[in-house]
Design a protein that fits this description.
The chain has about 160 residues and is an alpha+beta fold. The protein has one domain: 60s Ribosomal Protein L30, Chain: A (2-Layer Sandwich), CATH 3.30.1330.40. It is about 30% helix and about 25% strand. It is built from five helices and six strands, in the order αβαββαβααββ. Strands 1-2-3-6-4-5 form a six-stranded mixed beta sheet. Strand 2 and strand 3 form a beta hairpin. The chain is globular. The N terminus is likely disordered.
């Protein structure tokens, strides 16, 4: 697993600078990987993630759990933004969308997300994961319109 800090997409940096909220996340202990050798944390932007209390991704055994990755603005651009960020996290950890086995999507407009389906399929190709799509009233920040979390599996 690669543990590096790299800049977020410019729109994510703008959003991150505006974060003044602390949220409790189940993965908040990921920064201490030495006490959990089977629990390795990957940060895309460590200072922002640790200030909020989460890891971009956590490897546990042969699974990589990627936190909800957001897109802001209008669909379908927000959908592409989120999947591009997921691709970068997968690649930084030696994986591709072919390794994704489960996807959860939370969106403020399920109909708009459905219309962006061809964008989504372009990332997965023929390797479609199990998926759950849910419409929600609001995401972490009001400008977010889609949040996608995935579980990927390393080859055995």
């Amino acid at each position: 697993m690669v543990e590096t800090s790299r800049p977020w997409h410019p729109s994510r940096m703008k959003i991150a600078r505006g974060l003044a909220v602390t949220m409790a996340v189940a993965l908040s202990g990921c920064a201490t990987t030495a006490t959990h050798p089977a629990h390795a944390c990957y940060h895309a932007n460590e200072s922002v993630e640790t200030s909020i209390g989460f890891c971009e991704a956590v490897r546990s055994g042969d699974k990589l759990y990627i936190s909800g990755t957001v897109g802001a603005g209008e669909m379908p651009a927000a959908t592409k933004q989120a999947y591009d960020a997921l691709r970068r996290t997968l690649e930084a950890n030696g994986l591709t969308f072919a390794n994704v086995v489960k996807e959860n999507v939370y969106t403020t407009d399920i109909e708009a997300f459905k219309k962006a389906g061809d964008i989504r399929k372009g990332y997965y190709g023929a390797n479609l994961p199990a998926a759950t799509w849910v419409e929600v009233r609001r995401l972490f920040l009001p400008q977010f319109v889609v949040e996608i979390e995935v579980i990927a599996e390393y080859p055995r």
